[in-house]
């Protein structure tokens, strides 16, 4: 079977940027800056980008481009018996997508409700009670929120439609539309925010540097985690994407472009968030530090409240905001599902449509659990271990296999043959030594916090059940490696 | 806005936005990334 390919390098860049830009770029980055020394956070953030983000992205591009395979068979090609490590990355992505799609469904559902009924008078009660129908706790599964379930199926439908059309006509075309449009939507939000009274005060809170924060190692670890999780590393996505590149491709320049576009987008989105929150603080008289929030609290409670206060066009800007979230989410979700689809296609020599069908069937069994009343609790616990542990472990395994066992110099030589910017030996040390040390520190620090203080106030039994996904992922990865590879 | 915030805005904008535009431009004009030079695999 001939391997699919991108029709242009720009298509590859936009698809990789689409993968990297997700909901966190809009609802998390600004808050990270604000709580970690304001503008001073940009210093560790850029250091992390240069020392870990870009070197690891070059590594993933190099693995995919050198082997022309998706993660499991790519790692097997680099070192015999390493296929399971690739499956580990793919399964981590699978687990994350099963609930990530439900979060996109919340955004889609909110967007539709906003279009029909406008803003709710109490966004907090409306989101948690009416939309999520949240139950009393983890042990109370509650009923299924049919609105969210329908939206989840709709999001899966969109993903299936994009991926079934293939790399060129599906992934590439969809990202060529979604990414410029997403950028346009965020620029609209920024421009609107800048015209509002109080916006500059909000931006001042966002950017005023507190250089003393740089002495706190937690700020540096936050910067490294933010870079790692934001660039779609450890999922095997970029390995699959680079495997579709033509022989002659400048991997180094592409890695710089994708990483900087992703980080530049986050920086831009921070202006929309803080400008609008500054306006909210100005009109409501509530101090800014009392209105600042992140994640779902920002997206579904604080921001709708802030936008509803706009003097004109409040509904339009609400639609723009939720549409931006839906696009950012879908462009990331398709890339994670593609990592699973391409891995199954390569391993079992299946057609794209068949592989997609099997993957979707599995997702449709797992995802609905997150649309129940206790879905948010399950999501919170599983996300903690999937994002916080599985992804860094997957990346460390990739590094050990590609740089230590296969040979960083061989990959460096491959990249340098194709790239205008030549990598020095420093790349091998940044990707092969510094990155795994930092990733291990991030994991160990969190593990010690969980062991001493638990997580999120949940009972230890539930936290332990959540942590079970780590050994389970190992077991399933090894089972998949043991299955016979069918040569196409 | 205070001077510190303006300085960090310039710092972030120059590196993140300036860098993104510069590398996007380089990636488009890179000989290795031009379609006519590529042999499809």
Briefly, what is this?
The complex is a heterodimer of chains A (488) and B (41). Chain A is an all-alpha fold and 488 residues long.
Oligomer: heterodimer
- Share of residues in strands of chain B: under 5%
Radius of gyration of CA atoms of chain A, rounded to a whole number: 22 Å
What is the averaged pLDDT score of chain A? 95
H and E string of chain B: H
N-to-C CA distance of chain A: 6 Å
Number of helices in the DSSP assignment of chain B: 1
Structural class of chain A: mainly alpha
Low-confidence stretches of chain B: none
Low-pLDDT sequence parts of chain A: none
Give the helix proportion of chain B (percent range).
55-70%
Which class of secondary structure composition applies to the elements of chain B?
Answer: mainly alpha
User: How can the largest sheet of chain A be summarized?
Assistant: none
How far is the first residue's CA from the last residue's CA of chain B? 54 Å
Number of helices, counting only DSSP H or I runs of 4 residues or more of chain A: 21
How big a fraction of the residues of chain A is strand? under 5%
Measured by residues with Cβ under 8 Å of the partner chain's Cβ, the largest interface is: A-B, 38 and 31 residues
